[in-house]
Amino acid sequence: MFRLHPRLEADTVEIAVWPLSRVLLMNDRTYPWLILVPQREDVRELHHLSPEDRTRLVHEMALAARLLEDATKADKINVAALGNQVPQLHVHVIARFHDDPAWPDPVWGVVRPEPYDQASLSHTIRMLRGNMTPPQTAG
């Protein structure tokens, strides 16, 4: 049975459920930041997914990147699957801007996360969901 890692549960807000992944918004208004978590039990690495799920995940990563790019007009979209602190397989999809606090370096550890206030969280979720196209079956 799939269960979201407690750290991801604490740091994010679910905005959608796609065929493979839960789509989460990182609760940090500094960077528009989605996290995709494949709904598979005990999967830690990309290569642990079945070939079909790997294909589906890449498709969903591209959709998340396009969603952020279209919604935010980002200068660059960063995609990463690290898992050093949260062992559950998850993929970060982060909108980056030339004037963000970490540019051009990675976002981790540069500034403390700044949680959304309720109004900006609601606005961001509406904006993302409004631009969201339901994923189609890959292949």
Automatic annotation (TrEMBL):
Segments crossing the lipid bilayer: none
Superkingdom per UniProt: Bacteria
Gene3D superfamilies, A to Z: HIT-like
Record flagged with keyword Phosphoprotein: no
GO MF terms held by the record: hydrolase activity
InterPro entries for the chain: HIT-like, HIT-like_sf, HIT_Hint
Domain HIT: 34-103
Signal sequence coordinates: none
Keyword Transferase attached: no
Cross-referenced PROSITE patterns: HIT_2
SUPFAM superfamilies named in the record: HIT-like (SSF54197)
Pfam families xref list: HIT
Keywords annotated in UniProt: Hydrolase
Name of the protein described by the UniProt record: Diadenosine tetraphosphate hydrolase
